[in-house]
Amino acid sequence: MSKSHASGTGTLTDRYVAEVVRRIPADQRGDVADELRATIADTVEARGPADAEAAEREVLTEMGDPIRLAAQYADRPLALIGPGLYPTYIRLLTVLLSTVLPVVTALSAVLGVLDGQGSAEVIGGAVGTVLSVGAQMVAWLTVVFALIERSGKRSGTVGGAWTPDDLPELRAPKKRGAAACTGMAWHALLIALIVWQHTAQPYRTDDGIRLDVLDPGLWSGWIWPILAGLVGLVTLDAIRVVRVWTRTSAVWSLAAEAAFALPLAWVLHRQEFFNPAFLSDVNGGWQIPDSFHTVVAVGVLAVGAGEVAKRFREARG
Q1: φ and ψ of 49, to 5 deg
Q2: What does the alpha-carbon distance between residue 232 and residue 13 come to, in Å, rounded to a whole number?
Q3: What's this model's pTM, rounded to 2 decimal places?
Q4: How far separated are the first and last CA of the chain, in Å rounded?
């Protein structure tokens, strides 16, 4: 079978199969990929054309949108929004939630900081924006597509008919090993630094008094879920190195990231992260602005959310 003349990054069959199997459960992907390749190859061969590339395009066009075919293999009914509109609906919803919603949330947080709001108000406002704006996006887009579905004018009116030209380029498999090892080393280093600064008390005042850098009071409470979350992240990074990353692994990653990031953001918001004696000796009594703690706390949550999103995208393939 000839290579795609458009990009040289894989045959149309390779790209079609990749689009189908990445949307079905991981344990079915191998069998479904083999079945699809055999079906496409046999159908093209049976037609015996002079131009095999044209026959390949014709067969894939007849098979239809890979999102619809994946839904059939995964036995997922497409009910409220029918199969004719569902692929376009999912693509548009993905764009809105992955691009528009983060921008709106970030702008809301920045405006809150500039307006002089405290950390709790900014974080609460950002969470409220995610929930309210995200819900509005999902609800109104669903209503619009449901109305189109029932209008009787849906055929070919939204997004146009699917053709093989709509297939994304075949992405090279991501090499997770280096990134996972880096993440594992970073999280392990954080654990070591937290424990070391408490046991070694590396900072010494002019009077010779040794101090923790972090607030010693954390060891009576919030430091433990933070450390537990870091241990979980180290474990999951090790799993990423040696095993296939699945949706279950991504859910565990969400739990570990939440255990680490949420308590950390909370103690930063309450300005209880650093040892007051250490700060007083370092800055001579100068008070760090509240806006600094707000920005750092929001940054911790944003980075954590970004990492969780990456893990779920990785599980999807």
Answers
A1: -85, 165
A2: 39
A3: 0.51
A4: 25
